[in-house]
Amino acid sequence: MRLAIRLVWLELRRSPSRLLRSAVTLTVLAALAMVLVSLVDTLDRRSTGVLRAVEADLVVFNVEARQQVLRSRVPRPATIGVGFVDGVHEVGVLSVVPTTVTHEGDQQRAALVGFNARTPAEPVRVLEGRVPTDGEPNIAAIDAALQRTGIEVGDRIILGGSLEVEVVGVVAEAMFLQQPSVWVPPEVWARTGARAFPERGYAEAIVGIGLVEVQVGQNPAEVAPDIVAELAEEDLDVEVVSVREAVASVPGVSAIRATFGGLVVLAIGVVVLVSAGLALLQVDRDRARNAGLRAIGAGTDVLAGALLSRLAVTWALASATGALLATALAAAVPAAVPLAVRPAPLALVAAVLGVAVGAGGAVALHRIRKIDPAEALGESW
Amino acid sequence: MGTVGTLAMGQLRRAPWHTAAVSVVLGMLISLVVVFGVVGDAQVRGLSGALASNDADLWVLATGAQGALSASRVDPELLGTVAAIEGVAGVEPVGEVRVGVRIDGGGLLDASLWGIDPASSAAPPVTEGSVPGARGEAIVDGADRHLGAVPGARVDLVDVSLPLRIVGLTEGRRFASIPTITIPYARWVEVVDGLNPDSDDVFPTAFAVEIDAAADSSEVADAISVAAPMLVAAPPGQLAAELPGIDGLRSSFGTAALVALVAVAAVGAAFTRLQVEQDLRVLSTLRAIGASPRVLRRIYQVRVALFVLLGAAVAAVLIGLAQLLSPPQIPITFEARTLAAVTFATWVAAALAAGRGLRGLRRLDPADVLRAPA
Amino acid sequence: MLVADRLHKVVGDGALAVTAVDEVSLQVERGELIAIVGPSGSGKSTLLAMLGALSTPTDGTVRIDGVDLSDLDERGRSELRSRRLGFVLQRPALVPFLTVSENVVLAGQIAGRPKSMASERADQLLTALGLEDRSGHRPAALSGGELQRVALARALLNDPVIVLADEPTANLDAQQGRAVVALLAEHTRGQGRAGVLVTHDESVAAVADRTLRLIDGRLADS
């Protein structure tokens, strides 16, 4: 194997174009797969960021809401009752309503999030300043996406066209249904919602969803039925699901995952075929030379090792350059395009590409094994 | 078939597996580009079709809603104000609300319930069945047939005791990518009232405005905003394009299609280049017996064209399969014109990119054929 | 040293089967260079492939230093080729991105020899073959005669007991061809190795100790 690696290293140093040509092709495909996965990831995160921003084990919806955060209405006293269920450590409430944010005359859409501070409903990552606590109706925290539009800590913004608040903090990006978010105490949510949607019955005694953190060592799936039973005793039909399920129920998320998921699978299929095709063409191109090497005693292991090393180098170059291209594209496109790259999805794509290239290489390996050393004799072509 | 065609075809026949592999790869990439476009359009239509495709000249929303239909509430008393504006031929209230439904006794689903009078310019055209008239009659989008939404089927609203019966179907009029039901506006008011028993008023979501043939729609839109500053008017297509999420979705699919198109070009070029290297001895011989670099280049240009055509054929098969197998909520339609456009773009891109690989042919020395291979 | 007994080779299947080599027996001793001549298609290369453990006979045996090649598996045959045999091919099959010296050393590395030893031996051989000035060049910069001399150096690197040459002059002019064959003879016969030279050129065969004539897969005379 050392000999094979050395041969590929020398080839890369002295005839880089031979290797780089394949690498460029795979790079474009890697970039395609990485852009696709990043688009899904970004669309997904920008639809569900509010639920991802908190650290809870379970989400409590009223049954009629059918797991929709915007529609869920739970009486506030009922959420207090959840705190007494065995296995529950803490409960918070979180409510969302679409609103507008006006800053220095510019108006934009946003998701207004009412939440209880110092509960599982508090956003975990505060980047700057602080988040408002209950009883602070005239201050708000914004998420990083809203900050990118030019709003800073200390600025005053108008919510829903009439309520002026001061921005006291910035939390990590937590978008909801592609809108940036503003985090306020629950009563501000109720007031803003009542003004925007008078028919929907917003009130301070009503909250959106309950967020539950279970005690250490407790299984959330076992605590959930107890919460349902506890609230049923208070004539309240609720549905208790994991945060993961609640995220999947956000409108559009399953469609995005299904659509792009299928397209990513198709793209990976293309990568397998392309890498197999490239590897086969390389084997064919070098067939005479490989037959000669086999004639002078090089075993299949040397030739196969060289092919695999070449594919590994190609994969590494393609993955690294593809990631750079995807990152550059994400930086170049307008902010409206939901394309933000994160290391984890890129690494996942690189790993899947590795498997795809390996699968493609396996086809070529079969061909290498079949190279007959006797081909080295006779006419040249 | 001339010399160029004979040689190009001969090389394709000599390596059928290679030809098949390259064609399949190009076909998959072409189908990927086409599918991005088709699925992107379908997604956008599913999200905004009910708003985008209707005969109203202008839609009027609440200014504060920032173009989000779900956040728009317009004061019904302003109906008269809008109707009185010069150039306005007619104005009708339109309502939209999310409801829980069971279609034909099936599972609980979210649906978008629209209230539009059948005579309104915003009313969706009925493509099958009849226009809703009597109490409880509704039309639905044909894309939801798989859910049992066909004429004659019953639709139960979960929180309101107003059973609906489907009497007609429309096409391409879905909203928010969920089943979309349209009933007359007066019935819609009843439903919203039933959903919010504690609320006194029901506000329409928007007004649909028809303007005089001689009037200028942008001038009328401006006049509406002047007469009622809390209202904003725009053509339905523009409002649909500005719905939350539409821009992001459109640009996502656009970006993905663009990158896929670049991938097609790169793959076409790389395979051609490798093929040139593999055929170098044969090409030397052709040069030695008098073939000009131009002829050699044309051989490869014909080959690229053949590969792309074969790829297009593979793509047509793949898209046809996708059309058969795609779920109803993500309809993939076979659009020959789109396929032709993408194939042409692929050919141009691949030919241009492959041209670079073929530049080496000009430097090919006919004397190479006399030289021993290393 | 090299003994072939009743070698028989059929290529192709069914109706397309052709007998390429038929009942060929031969023996090559240490210090002897034999030539196998015959017209194109007479089975010369097929016979050489069997003698050089590149392919297996349909029938018959090949022994090298008493080892029956049919007892070796694929790996064993590869080892035999790299350590005990040296090949000079019509197409030298040099690696284009390696220098002349590295191409010669490569044969040593394939045989598992330490690189330093292989390099030292490669330098000696390249000097002996008049290629010391070309050792840092890539194959693309060499003439046909030089390429064949590199191939000869590579063939000799592991001190093989038998050198097998397949049409080594086919791509060379007469002068270069004579020079290469002379070197081949010098480095086989002159150093106690056995040599087998396949050629269609009678003047090239003249350098050998014996000439075997192959016609339609059978030995005509010796």
Overall form of chain B: elongated
Q: Structural class given helices, strands, pairing of chain A?
A: alpha+beta
Fraction in helix of chain B:
40-55%
Residue windows where pLDDT falls under 50 for at least 5 positions of chain A: none
Order of helices and strands of chain A: HHEEHEEEEHEEEHEEHEHHHHH
| Terminal CA distance of chain B | 36 Å
**Elements of chain B, N to C (H/E):** HHEHEEEEEEEHEHEHHHHH
Count of domain modules of chain B? 2
Explain briefly what this protein structure is.
The complex is a heterotrimer of chains A (381), B (374) and C (222). Chain B has 374 residues and is of the alpha+beta class. Chain B is 49% helix and 16% strand.
Structural summary, described in words:
The complex is a heterotrimer of chains A (381), B (374) and C (222). Chain A folds into two domains: 171 residues, no CATH class; 182 residues, no CATH class. Helix content of chain A is 51%, strand content 19%. A six-stranded mixed β-barrel of chain A has the order 3-4-9-6-8-7. In chain A, strands 2-10 form a two-stranded antiparallel ribbon. Chain A is elongated, with a radius of gyration of 28 Å. Chain A starts with a helix and ends in a 12-residue tail after the last helix. Chain B has 374 residues and is an alpha+beta fold. Chain B folds into two domains: 170 residues, no CATH class; 177 residues, no CATH class. Chain B starts with a helix and ends in a 12-residue tail after the last helix. Chain C has 222 residues and is an alpha/beta fold. Chain C has one domain: P-loop containing nucleotide triphosphate hydrolases (Rossmann fold), CATH 3.40.50.300. The longest helix of chain C has 15 residues.
